[in-house]
């Protein structure tokens, strides 16, 4: 059996481990809801790309219809969890119904 490479993302003091569904800050687990984690992962995987709100909703809730307020709550929770430790990581563009993540990101396998 072949083992899949493990990808980790580092965002300043944070480390995101998608396979373990874990966000650490200076080695300490950060509490996120499952959908907030999914939102962060989509933003990280699309770092520095403008994501339309509908694309984010489809990526995080692929088999469900949800109100856009759910996405707003997740973005709020992520901003709170990331605090000022990564600058201003998630920028919303209400006029375009979109969000962009601009994170000081490095990836490793």
The percent range for helix content is 25-40%
Distance between the termini: 19 Å
Q: Mean of residue pLDDT?
A: 80
Number of domains: 1
Q: What share of the residues does DSSP label as strand, in percent?
A: 25-35%
Q: Tell me, briefly, the overall form.
A: globular
Enter the CATH topology name.
Arc Repressor Mutant, subunit A
Q: SSE order, as H and E?
A: EEEEHEHHEEE
> What's the architecture in CATH terms?
Orthogonal Bundle
Strand order within the widest beta sheet:
4-3-2-1-8
Name of the CATH class: Mainly Alpha
What are the segments in which pLDDT stays under 50 over at least 5 consecutive residues? none
The largest β sheet comes out as: 5 strands, antiparallel
What value does the Rg take, in angstroms? 14 Å
Structural class by secondary-structure content: alpha+beta
CATH evolutionary superfamily: Winged helix-like DNA-binding domain superfamily/Winged helix DNA-binding domain
Quickly count the helices.
3
Number of strands: 8
Secondary-structure map:
Layout lengths: L7 E4 L2 E4 L4 E4 L2 E2 L4 H12 L4 E3 H8 L7 H15 L7 E4 L4 E4 L3 E4 L1
Antiparallel strand pairs: 1-2, 1-8, 2-3, 3-4, 5-7, 6-7
Helix pairs in contact: 1-3
Give a brief rundown of this model.
By secondary structure, the chain is α+β, with helices and mostly antiparallel strands. The chain has one domain: Winged helix-like DNA-binding domain superfamily/Winged helix DNA-binding domain (Arc Repressor Mutant, subunit A, Orthogonal Bundle), CATH 1.10.10.
Explain this structure.
The strands form two sheets. This protein has a five-stranded antiparallel β-sheet, with helices on one face. The protein has a three-stranded antiparallel β-sheet with strand order 5-7-6. By secondary structure, it is of the alpha+beta class. It has one domain: Arc Repressor Mutant, subunit A. It contains three helices and eight strands. Strand 6 and strand 7 form a beta hairpin. It has helices at 34-45, 53-60, 68-82; strands at residues 8-11, 14-17, 22-25, 28-29, 50-52, 90-93, 98-101, 105-108. Helices cover 32% and strands 27% of the residues.
